Amino acid sequence: MQIVAPAGNLSGLRASINGGADAVYLGMPQFGARAKAQNFDDTALKQAVDFAHLFGVKVFVTLNTLIKDSELDAALSAARLAYETGADAAIVQDIRFIKLLKREIPDFVLHASTQMGIHNRDGAAKLLDLGIRRAVLSRETLPEDIRAVKSTGIEIEYFVQGALCIAFSGNCYFSSLASSYSGNRGKCMQLCRKPYTFRGNKGYSLSAKDICLYDRLSELENLGVDAIKIEGRMRSDEYAYTATSVYKSDMPIADAVSRLKSVFNRGDYCSAYLDADAPFRVVYDKTQSNIGIPIGKIDKVRGNKIHVAGYAANPLDGFKVLRGGREICGGSVRGGEITVDGNCKQGDELRRTFDGALTEKVKSARRAIPVSVRVDLKAGEPPQATLSANGVTVTVCGEEVALPARTRAITADDIARVFGKVSEYPFEPAVDSRICGEIFMPVSALNELRRTAYRALSDKLLRAYPIKRSTDAYKGLIYNKFAGSGKILMVESGEDLTEKTVAAVDYVALNPRNYGDFTVPRINKPILLNLPVTMRGKDRDVILSAIAHDGIYGVISNNMYTLNITDKPVLLGIGHNIIGHCDLPHIRSYEADSLPQNADGVFIYAFGYAPLMTLCHCPYGKCVNCSGRDMLTDEAGRKFALRKYSAAHCYWQLLNCVPHSLQKKAGANIFLDCTELNASQTEQVVLLGEYDGQYTVGNVNKGLK
What are residue 317's phi and psi, to 5 degrees? Predict the structure, then answer.
């Protein structure tokens, strides 16, 4: 399987390549999902692509954020630059941008970002219609669905190491609605890593462990995974090098895990959702960041100095001290002793979070291309160098003529020393000198010969690199498009409806708690079924049966899979993250900061407790006879409802602490999400067009960042 490694900057790119990466993924200054990474400007991008391609390493450029209408031209220019620089593929999310790319740069290879939330066969099938060759699957994808996705013929890329977002891929709006800094635009504020109170206990209830799947590689390969991906463009060079080199190796599992934990370890790892009990094991609520590897128990404390028997620290080491699994303080080495910035006591656990010896190793690591160098020197003729590497050969001649030696003649060792200086080129030369007689040649002339030869070899190697362009046909999104207009009211069940509310709307949408057991109300308005963002494993059978209910006119889609499983009219919902002009009928994302007035086929999310996250794990950590409703409280006292829904599997939504209320700003086409309201409250919202209480208008006034 191909190893796809992170590159947050040039040094990170070199670290990943030195570790053995087969491909790297990186971002440009805009439109990549890690805006806080150093990323690559025009010059750095060219350097990165050339350096990678010398080793035959592919470069995938992330253009995987949501893009505003005003940014589309700039995004297209960025894509053209990446294409012309030689990037092997672009990783994308925004379906409007995908359509633009397939029209303007049709042979640019496209990979679907994990932000598209592709996690089943039906979603993958629609990607193929869009001319997308590879899907970076959602981390929540189940093993049986990986195999089913592969049956479509699409390439599969799967995360095996690094951060596990607690929210379903691409459908986290917490940061955006709290601060206007959107995770879907690479600017996540990581509110999931904050402490919350849940059922009386304060902890990091939304902080997921990191993934580590080193011990599952054979299983993934058998399931059809083509490429394994390491998350971490915001992490250190040590992390990039170590994670890549470990996954490139065949070392014992225990050694691999120990090395991986030495560079980053959030909660001693989980296996994503590959195991049946995964929903109960993904959260580590004691601390939200790197806890490193255990060194031992503190046996001596003297002021802010601590000691662990038998441990000799590297001067560059960094530490954390845990008590009962919770972080107490950090530490470093000063004056040869471990110095901490908090109150420790004997018996506390010392963990190393930064390995100084590893830093030194990474700085000295170098992946090199073996080069055969033959230098011919003969009096009366210019020197000649013939270089060969990876099936490519170049021959260059110097400008000065070699002369008979009058004093000291040049030796093979002299030539070897000159050609051993490879400068910025990642070459490892083996030099064969053929000197005919006693020859004099200025070292400056040999240096110039070396520079010319290495430059010529590098250029020819890059020309020989096979950049594969796309031949994938673009069919577009073909499905039965919803053609209605007016007011759509969404409720949990028919019990939340009154005659007055039904009379005041044009459509009713159902958002059931249980897709396997709900009743379609008998009303004189067309009924839409709101489909979940998730359809994993046997969920498919349940959802297909739900769509087939008598009285269901059409569906609201929140993931690409929906477009492949029904012939009924489909309205694209919030889950598709459409923030600007789109010719497909849709509900505008509540991330958007613009409200189109009376645009055909565009509905405004005018009211509702917006789902900030969809969670595939169980917040209780075990299966209990729950009511399907609970609450998280943040440090400011704001309360966020948890709402469970189910198909074959259980899922939870984290709802915003206050509802959207945009009816006074919206046009004729509005969507009212009254899922959390009872019948009388729903009637008030529908008939009076207002909400009595605190509310938000989302990003309309703040702007989407």
Answer: -65, 150
Count the neighbouring beta carbons within 10 Å of the beta carbon of residue 613: 21
DSSP state letters, 26-54:
EE-SSSSS-TTS----HHHHHHHHHHHHH
Are 207 and 283 in contact by the 8 Å Cβ rule? The answer is yes
Pairing of strands 89-92, 110-112: parallel
CA distance 634 to 365: 45
Measured torsion, CA atoms of residues 109, 113, 118, 122, in degrees rounded to the nearest 10: -20
Q: How many CB atoms lie within 10 A of CB 550?
A: 6
The structure tokens 């099938």 sit at 125
CB 479 within 8 A of CB 572: no
Within 10 angstroms of residue 573's Cβ, the number of other Cβ atoms is 27
How far is residue 387's CA from residue 392's CA, in Å, rounded to a whole number?
Answer: 8
CA 152/CA 133 separation, integer angstroms: 11
Residue 92 pairs with which residues in a beta bridge?
63, 112
Cα 589 to the chain's mean position, in Å?
Answer: 20
DSSP per residue, 536-553: -TTHHHHHHHHHTSTTEE
> In angstroms, rounded to a whole number, what is the distance separating the alpha carbons of residues 216 and 161?
11
Q: Report the alpha-carbon distance of residue 640 to residue 209 in Å, rounded.
A: 22
Task: State how far Cα 363 lies from the chain centre.
Answer: 26
Residue 356 pLDDT greater than 90, yes or no: no
**CA angle, 80 then 84 then 86, to 5°:** 125
Q: Which two tokens stand for residue 638?
A: 């704001």
DSSP H helical ranges for 86-170? 95-104, 121-129, 143-150
CB-based burial label for 200 (10 Å; 0-12, 13-18, 19+): exposed
CA distance 486 to 664: 15
The tens digit of pLDDT for each residue in 22-74 reads 999 999 998 887 777 778 999 999 999 999 999 999 999 999 999 999 999 99
Fill in the DSSP letter of residue 470: P
Q: How many CA atoms lie within 13 A of 174 on its CB side?
A: 23
- Give CA–CA dist 287/271, Å, rounded: 19
> Rounded to an integer, what distance in angstroms lies between the CA atom of residue 304 and that of residue 285?
27
Phi, psi (degrees; rounded to nearest 5) at 161: -150, 140
DSSP 640: E
> For residues 377 and 410, is the Cβ–Cβ distance under 8 A?
yes
- Per residue in 488-519, pLDDT (tens digit) is 999 999 999 999 999 999 999 999 999 999 99
* Strand pairing category for 611-615 and 349-354: unpaired
Q: How many CB atoms lie within 10 A of CB 424?
A: 9
Q: How far is CA 453 from the centre of its chain?
A: 40
Rounded to whole angstroms, how far apart are CA atoms 138 and 423?
42
